[in-house]
Amino acid sequence: MLWIAIRMLTGDAQKFYGLLFGIAFSTLLITQQLTIFVNLIERGASGVYNAPEAEIWVMDPVSRTTEVNYAMPSTALDEVRSVKGVEWAVPHLRAPASVRSSTGDLEGVQIVGVDDATLIGLPERLLEANKSILSQPDTVLIDDVGITNLFESGEDPIGQRLELNDQRAIIRGVADAIPSFTSQVTLYTKYSQALNYVPGTRNRLTFVLVGIKDGESAEAVAQAIEDQTGLKAETRAEFAQAGVNFIIENTGIPLNFGITVALGFIVGVAIVGLTFSLFIRDNIKQFGALKAIGVTNRKIAGMVVSQAAMVGSIGYALGVIGTVLFILGFSENPTFKGFYIPWQVPFVSMVAVIVILSLTGWLSLRSVMRTEPAAVFR
């Protein structure tokens, strides 16, 4: 009976390919959009991921993310260092600035000042030069994605002179950094040098990055810092999640992507439902003939389920493969740098496909169950 069901399905090539297209298109749309959505909102935590050594981030109580922050007095650094369980604590500055390139172009950038001695706060890898290059005067490192925003394609950024707040800055290295949510140009330099690049205010210290002693819990040390200093302290995971939550709560991205995913589901139901219904209608006499020779409704239901399973499996595979090819095809584009497909996304797509096939298959199966054996003679 399974062979007969498959032959009935593939016998009508137009409807068979129409069913495959409907499932594949829905899977592609749902998987691709969810993949882009997940990767975009994760960039809200890029500042945390780009400072891998920090186990705890300490900040003013009103600060929310690495981009939405309020500076603290410099004395906060010594207060944090005095807390039990703290192995080391270093200053970290993050502030916006405007840079003028050698060609006169003006661009908004993010200045990141890292500890002068340890350079904690830099991305783990540099694409050009090494971290010690920051010991040279007026040196900044630029993130690799920022190069495309600040310079023309093919232009070498190394040695380029910039003007930052009437101060000279020379690009001497390129950092392999996770782009920010806005893909803004990010310049890394020493903390002492960063103080000269950003507008002067009474408080300049944005964050304190903390490492904990062996045997200590990050959660316990963070709580001790809050109790002793009155500042807000969050673990690496907590602060990264705060960046993601900020984007979800304060932008229209979830709604926009949610609408697209819903449309993919609706289109899948419409195409598959219509095509499957036409397939059943055109083969109603064959089902009637099977009933006339003694095939039970249960076996016929099994045939319809096997047809839906075949179409769903092939269409789902094509949709996921299409998403993989899309990500690979755009992997060189800075906008899609670091994009990956979380395992949960194909799982969600598979559930959507099952729901689509279950809904459309059930509606089509009702007409088959009502078919009388005499239908073959009409």
Write up this protein.
The protein has 378 residues and is α+β, with helices and mostly antiparallel strands. 50% of the residues lie in helices and 17% in strands. The chain has helices spanning 2-11, 13-42, 46-49, 75-81, 144-150, 191-197, 218-229, 236-250, 253-282, 284-292, 297-329, 344-369, and strands at 56-59, 86-100, 106-114, 126-128, 139-143, 161-164, 167-175, 185-190, 207-212, 232-235. A six-stranded mixed β-barrel has the order 2-3-8-5-7-6. The mean pLDDT is 85.
Question: Gist?
Answer:
With 378 residues, the chain is an alpha+beta fold. The protein contains twelve helices and ten strands.
Which labels suit this protein?
378 residues; alpha+beta; 10 strands
Mean pLDDT, to the nearest integer, reads: 85
Helix content: 40-55%
- Radius of gyration, in Å, reads 29 Å
What is the oligomer described by this structure? single chain
Describe the strand arrangement of the main beta sheet, using strand numbers.
2-3-8-5-7-6
